[in-house]
Amino acid sequence: MSDDKKARGLRELYDQDPERADWLTFGRITGTNRRGFLKGAGLAAMTAAVGAASIPFARHMPGGLIPAALADEVGNFEILGKEGIIIRNDRPVNLETPPHLLDDDVTPIRHFFVRNNGGLPDEAADPDGWTLSVDGEVDEPFEITLGELRERFETITRQAQLECGGNGRAGFNPSPRGNQWVIGAVGNGEWTGCRLKDVLEAAGVRSSAVYTAHYGADPHLSGDPEREALSRGVPIEKALEEQNMLVWEMNGEPLPLAHGGPLRILVPGWPGSCSQKWVTRIWVRDREHDGQGMTGHSYRVPRHPVEPGAEVPDEDMVVMESMPVKSVITHPQTRVEAPSGEALAVRGHAWAGDRQVAAMHLSIDFGATWQEAELDEPANPYAWQHWRAEIALPSPGYFEVWARATDDHGDMQPAVVPGWNPRGYLNNSQHRIAVVAV
Ligand SMILES: Nc1nc2c(c(=O)[nH]1)N[C@H]1C(S)=C(S)[C@@H](COP(=O)(O)O)O[C@H]1N2
Ligand SMILES: [Mo]
What we know:
This protein is mainly beta. The protein has helices at 10-16, 18-26, 40-49, 68-71, 146-152, 196-203, 236-239; strands spanning 86-90, 93-96, 114-115, 131-136, 142-145, 156-163, 186-195, 211-216, 245-250, 253-254, 264-266, 279-285, 300-302, 317-319, 326-331, 336-338, 343-351, 357-363, 371-372, 374-375, 385-392, 397-407, 431-437. It has 3 domains: 3-52, no CATH class; 86-319, Oxidoreductase, molybdopterin-binding domain (Sulfite Oxidase, Chain A, domain 2); 326-437, Immunoglobulin-like. Strands 6, 7, 9, 10 and 11 form a 5-stranded antiparallel β-sheet that branches. Strands 16-23-22-18-19 form a 5-stranded mixed β-sheet, with no helix packed on it. A hairpin with a 2-residue loop joins strand 9 and strand 10 (253-254). The longest helix has 10 residues, at 40-49. GO terms for molecular function: heme binding; molybdenum ion binding; molybdopterin cofactor binding; sulfite oxidase activity.
């Protein structure tokens, strides 16, 4: 597991690579062609970060220069309005939430993980003018603005958890390439928008429809406008399920740029990559989509178990669907000290892709015995479920608390890393925290 991508001080970041530091901090894409001065969303972000209403001489401010207002900051700094977040990658921006910051029932935006495959598009000047086109195997292809979506379709608000297919990748050995997510590439948002199904049905889905293909406005890292950063889709039967949404608000706020604002798809329970951000087009196809992230080893796992490190031919790989049962301990924070013999409150959340979580258990003796935790029903289908328990550590010394969720089909989280796969997806092994009793 690599720790070299942990949050770094702003100064250190600028010392290493000033242009990249700019891009990382203020969301600006720099490069030989766009080198120069901050403008647009980047300038707005910098202005907010330095704590002023404006930067009158911004046009003279050189790129790659750390603003003096921030130069003395030590430790973590803010990136895309985030707080306490771990930087797993800076180009593209990938941010992981430490588990203790997932304690809230609904994950605050400032703590919600970010997974980008490409650059950030520019902030939309007129969000309601954002256009989505629906075409392909439909009777009446159309283009619709976000403003019209709000008017024409029933607005709903739902909680739903969103998890990256590669969450937990850091646990696999040998280590697959990709972001070394530990456990925090997951969050539970409160999303407002309309049903994806209503929009697809308005276009009249034909019987020849097999799969959706999602396109977004984010630029490919190469800068090549012909290439997609990510373009995935889902089987049409899945797309037409009730819980999927076109989202324009998150936690009661306009959907932030980092999370796909002004408009994204949400397919809860499936790998996060199905939930296209900055969505501009839904192409209904007569075959499985073959866009960026659909083929080869991307978001696929071997059909049959393989030896760790095996080379798996493409034809033996299958597209991932529902995410597996999983849970996280959000309190206490790992490495806490606790008095022995006294009750210690432990809590967290659990989720199970398309399924529900049926039971939650904790162990303080490395899995030898288990005690049942109290488990809540989800706020609505696809929301994560909260659980809590009191444990008592029998003596002073080092303990680990292990958490194990079981879904309504009887599947439970393994203690060890589950089936190795070339890209390191679907690691739902038990979360463990360290507690030192004194
Ligand atoms: N357009 C676009 N949509 C995207 C991505 C992307 O890179 N581009 N990343 C996907 C992946 S892999 C995940 S896990 C989720 C993460 O959503 P979040 O950044 O809002 O947490 O967005 C998905 N949607
Ligand atoms: Mo992801």
